[in-house]
Design brief:
This protein has five helices and 13 strands. By secondary structure, the protein is an alpha+beta fold.
Length: 213
């Protein structure tokens, strides 16, 4: 999924100026990084929001067009209004085609309902992590990472080292020796306890009756 947004250079700065721009339907922002200086930008709120609401906008290499010139960027930060939840400011970082980037990518969990731990074991899926930081060059950055839970039994977990990644992509946590659990299937409540009473052998029952007589 390729996301393309347009921006114009912003001449005015300051808190008061930003308020005026927002009231006029614009969102202030900035682009920085690489060998070029930081540039204050201005976005149309409606156009920005239409892309901002997509998951890929937060974990993909985007294209920003500024006065006809396109640049590859990543969304690095944003501010939302504490009450209205509207976009107040956005920060983008330029990316190089040859340098590795670190980006948090969301997990998409599949086959949980057909896993033995859920289908026959009666377990419940618990997502321990919903995203993880990866390292790769820009062209290899995935929009999401699939986590296949189809083989999990109740009481089992899947870790970062067990997840298949696209070529050229690696988990930052694994590179630092931390093989974190991503998801697990919890056993049904009471599954570990033996709640069924053992049947009394017939011979034992007869002996008890004889003793009573």
């Amino acid at each position: 999924m390729s996301i393309h947004i347009k921006a114009t250079k912003r001449d005015v700065k300051g808190t008061s100026a930003s308020r005026r721009l927002r009231r006029a339907g614009s969102v202030p922002g900035v682009i920085y990084g690489g060998d070029s200086p930081a540039i204050p930008l201005l976005f149309d709120y409606k156009e920005l929001f239409m892309e901002f609401r997509h998951e890929a906008f937060h974990a993909s290499v985007l294209k920003i067009e500024i006065d006809g010139k396109k640049e590859d960027v990543l969304l690095r930060d944003y501010q939302l209004h504490p009450v209205r939840n509207t976009i107040q400011h956005v920060d983008f970082q330029r990316v190089s085609a040859s340098e590795k980037i670190h980006v948090k990518v969301p997990f998409h969990f599949i086959n949980a309902e057909t896993s033995p731990g859920v289908k026959t074991g009666g377990g419940a899926v618990a997502h321990i992590m919903n995203e993880a930081e990866v390292s790769c060059i820009a062209k290899n950055l995935p929009e999401f990472i699939e986590v296949d839970l189809g083989a999990l039994e109740a009481g089992q977990s899947i870790h970062l080292s067990e997840i298949k990644l696209p070529e050229g992509v690696e988990f930052v946590q694994l590179a630092h020796g931390s093989d974190l659990a991503v998801s697990s299937i919890n056993k049904p409540r009471g599954a570990s306890a033996d709640t069924t009473a053992a049947p009394v052998a017939p011979a034992a029952e007869e002996e008890s009756a004889d003793d009573a007589e």
